[in-house]
Write a structure and sequence with these properties.
With 227 residues, this protein is an alpha/beta fold. Helices cover 40% and strands 20% of the residues. The chain contains nine helices and seven strands. 43% of the residues are buried.
Length: 227
């Protein structure tokens, strides 16, 4: 993939979050995937990624997803592979249907006002909607270190409603799946005020902090869960 394509898929904090993309790329047997669903699509980057693999995919978000995602998708030859649905991740109208469900950074927003029970409901709905043997590809913002938590309180506009997920909760949410793998990355990258700064700080993470910091201090968790 080109740098421009990865930028279009990941959208922001690209160097840190694209680690999930590379992991999924090399781990999934893509020849066995017949359909997919992106949750919380917004601009539809992950739907684009799947469609470019030749996989029919539903790009979804809570509302107006075609309006927000079509501008990006129109830049690529994928219009016959992507459909759009406004879906609530807490009530998916599918059962045993998808080979792949993918999301990036949606659980904290769904768990607003400190409601981890609501977050668990998302994973229950995903489990229901996947076929037996289907896979959830996930990447999510973690609670991370005390430094991250303090920084969010001072500088993040959505601090009063976003419920960042502790690592132990994320593992608990996945217990119904037959198996899952989870990796953690990113310490400094999130502190960049623009994409260039994030790239520089993420490079420092790759050289130093991803190796020296405990996973509980990192702000991104990504992996694969198998139904």
């Amino acid at each position: 993939m080109t740098e421009k394509l990865i930028q279009d898929i990941i959208q922001w904090d690209v160097r840190s979050w694209s680690k999930a993309l590379h992991y999924w790329d090399k781990t999934v047997n893509w020849s066995s995937v017949g359909n997919a669903l992106e949750l919380g699509g917004r601009e539809g980057g992950l739907s684009l990624w799947l469609a470019l693999k030749g996989i029919p995919v539903i790009c979804s978000d809570l509302e107006n997803v075609k309006q927000t995602a079509l501008p990006l998708h129109s830049k690529y030859p994928v219009k016959n592979l992507i459909t759009y649905e406004d879906l609530n991740a807490l009530a998916l109208p599918y059962e045993n249907h998808f080979d792949i469900i993918v999301f990036k950074s949606i659980i904290g927003g769904i768990g607003r006002k400190d409601s981890p029970g609501t977050q668990q409901k998302v994973f229950d709905e995903i489990y229901k909607a996947l076929k037996p043997g289907g896979k959830l590809l996930f990447a999510e913002n973690m609670k991370a270190s005390a430094l991250h938590q303090k920084s969010r309180q001072l500088f993040t506009e959505w601090k009063d409603y976003w419920h960042y997920v502790p690592a132990e909760d994320m593992k608990a949410y996945l217990q119904a799946f037959s198996s899952f793998t989870m990796r953690f990355t990113g310490f400094l990258g999130t502190f960049g005020r623009n994409e260039r700064q994030k790239q520089i700080l993420a490079a420092a993470d790759d050289v130093i902090f991803n190796w020296s910091c405990p996973d509980s201090w990192k702000y991104i968790a990504y992996g694969i869960a198998v139904k």
